[in-house]
Amino acid sequence: MSGVKMFALASVGTLLLTACSGDDTAPISATVTATATVTAQAAPAEAPAAETVTETVTATVTETMAPDSPPDLEAEPASDTTDMPTNSDGLFSFGETVTYADGLELTVGQPEAYQPGQYAAGSDHHDAFVRFPLSMTNGTDEPVDASWIVVTVQSGTGEGERVFDAGNGISGDPDSTLLQGRTNEWDIVFGVDDPEDMVMSIAPGWDYDSMIYTNTQ
């Protein structure tokens, strides 16, 4: 029977060498069963018949394999886009509300004709003037500095000019910090070439995308 055992162990050793030839890293365990069948002869005079002996040897083979590449843990930056409806050109109509990804809401109301006062500044180069009502609601998780708002207007073939008219309450943009959940409303005025053809670019801060409002749809 000792000859049988030596043969079975040799088979398992071959399996171990074969399984361990992989790359290194995370170990994987596998169970291999080897069966050896040997014909042994008994003493010549006493047992002429052959005897078949079967012995099963079970071995655990550890094979190392290269792991998968680690996942990319770098998070995608949040996008300051809006989920509000726009027209077919991707532009906003005056009166629509833009909601940014962080919850900040911005609305540019319907433009109205405006007549600057005697002491208004910025009213020397245009004959037509338009008032735009603005509204900002802080739906973010932190205070917002409303004074960082950036607004430009293009009309006809020229740039609009911002008008400041303190005598009529047109003094500029807010200076205060807007706390969470609060809304600030104010008006701005631009001198324009054509009140029927206006495109406004507006962003509530330098770190926000600009949104485009127009009445030329």
Q: Low-confidence parts, pLDDT < 50 over ≥5 residues?
A: 1-45, 56-66, 75-79
CATH topology of the largest domain: Immunoglobulin-like
Question: How widely separated are the two ends?
Answer: 97 Å
What count of structural domains? 2
Distinct helical segment count: 1
CATH C-level name of the largest domain: Mainly Beta
Largest sheet: 6 strands, antiparallel
The chain-level mean pLDDT equals 75
Radius of gyration: 41 Å
Query: Which class do the helix and strand fractions yield?
Result: mainly beta
Helical residues, percent: under 10%
Shape: globular
What string, H for helix and E for strand, traces the elements in order?
HEEEEEEEEEEEEEEE
Number of DSSP E strands: 15
CATH architecture call of the largest domain: Sandwich
Q: How big a fraction of the residues is strand?
A: 35-45%
Signal peptide: 1-21
Protein name: DUF4352 domain-containing protein
Biased composition (Polar residues): 79-89
Keywords: Signal
Provide the fold topology.
Elements: H1 2-19, E1 27-40, E2 51-64, E3 92-93, E4 97-99, E5 105-108, E6 112-113, E7 128-137, E8 144-145, E9 150-155, E10 158-159, E11 161-163, E12 177-178, E13 183-192, E14 198-203, E15 211-214
Parallel strand pairs: 3-15
Antiparallel strand pairs: 1-2, 4-5, 5-7, 6-7, 7-13, 8-12, 9-10, 9-14, 11-13, 14-15
